[in-house]
């Protein structure tokens, strides 16, 4: 049952064939009208320049506008259009998609096209450009239907039909009051099944969720997604509807936000794109590496304090990487859990303390399990391969085991408290926590391990 | 401009007040009808048991059904309902939401409720339960409108109104042929603005994207999201519509898929929940830690080979953690980038080689930058604080610098090739790559660093 027996239709292959074989332009246009824009966009990437230019002519600006937002990198295709046609295509696009495409272009090309846009599109694009990149307003679309709360169900329906030609996000219809302020939303289904004489008020949800245009994306995206609505309105400060976020916008925002957290956990300043040049990728990675290098130097100087231990008992260096790696792993686990919790939920102090306690408890329990394993297996290993007596071998492996327990409890603590601290002082914990935690954990692990070796193995037992 | 000046309405606080103050049940019901189910769900978590039980009576099963899917943990609230009412509530829910709620319950409670469901709901839930957890069929809903392609626009519209009472995902209407097989989809907007005498064929997209019910979620979710549609049909093997995925389902799937990748990068077997018991979290973390412990022991035995180097030149141990950490960081960066690329795109061999080359180039360039910094700063540090002569100090720091370059190039290579390899043999690279990469990088870094120190510092320059 697990295998897909019937292969899926390969629309892209079909499309390439149709485009290459069909000579009649009208026929080609009709055939293409059946296909999804995403598939046409993918098919286009396989065509020659001549084939593409022919296709642009057949498709016309409005259809190209629908297709172009599916390209990963639209620049190359826009370059193949005349400036006038490019501007016409962009004018047909939703403002947020238009902005995405324009952002792929060089600054001069972008300005050139923007100046050729029709007045409406220019206004819409300029509006979105006025937001900071991390403001939710920069992602909204003006593609929505809005009616006055004073209409009857019948009038609302005909107003919807009138607006639906231009605005195709119709599953939620927004309602404004006499001052043009946001007054609620109607589910299209409710409008369709409502009797003509029902007052519109009865089917309006007046406490419909909304966001303000200047809210920070990463702070509100999870909350928006939680409402599980087809669209959410974006309001200006005075309560008017500036635009909406559609469910597909929200998919993209969630994807981006998680991708960013993922990248930051891996020590990248932001998510990377396959097609970006080496130098851009390099710049995204170098900042963290430089910080880590200098923090690493700090750890090195602490290790230096224990040079005397190593000189007396060189075997202890064998297990340094083990203790440090394990502490690092536990810290990363706690960090990752804490960051997701901070994004998803609003924690009060009691819940934060509970989380902290839980992380330390997990650190202790896992540390104890691993500590016992280390004691047993390393003890045997040290006796057999390093030729230490059983007693000494188990003292050394015991030292590793105890270090693991201590280091893992502290790592769990550090991995939880540091992101909480950064969250509290409004610094993105996903960015700032990583290097600090690595360093603090390394320090803790080094001091615990070598300190224990010095006191326990050398001073007390004189191994 | 960055601050939100007007505070958002706190619907949850409003709701708590309304519920506590309003004595008249009919009035309360009317007031609540205006609020979003998510906000009511949140308000409920602040009520006492008596208040909740009163509220359940006022709301009625259908509204509770809409609210209950917003709870993080519905078990406690379902327990407060009688078995009959719980079953009635579940019957009103979309099958996929019902399944989510039922999964929170104990096995016995779950079976008890399922046996009390009405026949339709029972069939729907059993159907979803028949899928594996990682199959896309397990996430679909049967809440969609489906019409025959033989209808006229007028008939289609009245069929829609008839079905819309029960099925509220109406922005895309699915079309079946005479054999009841999936034949395409109609955008509701197109149906609304179509003239009554337009043939339905003209507004049907016959090449609409779809998935098969047994496809693996993680393999198809990004592709589904790429279509940016409000819903995607899930087909049986013989081409019939089994259900649909709505945009809000897709938001959830993307969120889950990314959350899982994120968790795996951090060394967790799956994403953790704040409310799960310590022992469950512990079990999610221990497997990786045990694997890493034993791999770490392997690294330890390799470090052991170089004990003689350390005995002669104890200062080299100071910088072991630095070289290992940096190699590990670079490996993680390459790993994270490669995993996202593998999820997002279909790469041919040429593109894979290009990515591999790019990662190594970045490793080299970043390694060189950091190597030079290490050479300069560590050289000065060793001379000033460790009292080595300038010459020796720079030989030692040079050894660290060269190790950084070599280790970072190889880490970039390993961090890219290992996930590609696991992807090729159909093992989830996000799970399998981490421990292997850490270990291989540690080994490479240890051998490079101590090897270089042995040959370069001790054998050649006799420091």
Structure description:
- Chains A, B: GO terms for molecular function: magnesium ion transmembrane transporter activity; metal ion binding.
- Chains A, B: Belongs to the SLC41A transporter family.
- Chains A, B: Acts as a magnesium transporter.
- Chains A, B: It is found in: Cell membrane; Membrane.
- The structure is a homodimer of 463-residue chains.
- With 463 residues, chain A is mainly alpha-helical.
- The first copy, chain A, folds into three domains: 11-130, MgtE N-terminal fold, CATH 1.25.60.10; 146-265, CBS-domain; 278-460, SLC41 divalent cation transporters, integral membrane domain (Tetracycline Repressor, domain 2, Orthogonal Bundle).
- Chain A is built from 19 helices and six strands.
- Chain A has helices at residues 11-21, 25-33, 37-44, 49-68, 75-79, 83-92, 95-103, 107-116, 119-129, 153-164, 188-193, 217-226, 247-265, 278-305, 307-312, 320-344, 349-386, 390-424, 429-460, and strands at residues 146-148, 172-176, 182-187, 211-212, 231-235, 241-246.
- The mean pLDDT of chain A is 88.
At the fourth level of CATH, the homologous superfamily of the largest domain in chain A is SLC41 divalent cation transporters, integral membrane domain
The order of strands across the largest sheet of chain A is 1-2-3
The oligomerization state is homodimer
Poorly predicted residue ranges of chain A: none
The dominant shape of chain A is elongated
Cα(first) to Cα(last) distance of chain A is 62 Å
Number of strands of chain A: 6
Largest interface: chains, residues each = A-B, 132 and 130 residues
How many discrete structural domains of chain A? 3
| Secondary structure: helix percent of chain A | 55-70%
CATH topology of the largest domain in chain A: the name is Tetracycline Repressor, domain 2
Q: Main sheet of chain A, how many strands, which sense, barrel? A: 3 strands, mixed
> Helix- and strand-based class of chain A?
mainly alpha
The CATH class label of the largest domain in chain A is Mainly Alpha
Query: What does the average pLDDT of chain A come to?
Result: 88
Architecture (CATH level 2) name of the largest domain in chain A: Orthogonal Bundle
> What fraction of the residues of chain A are assigned to beta strands by DSSP?
5-15%
Radius of gyration of chain A (Å) = 31 Å
Organism (chains A, B): Roseburia intestinalis L1-82
Keywords (chains A, B): CBS domain, Cell membrane, Magnesium, Membrane, Metal-binding, Transmembrane, Transmembrane helix, Transport
Pfam family, one (chains A, B): CBS
Main location (chains A, B): membrane
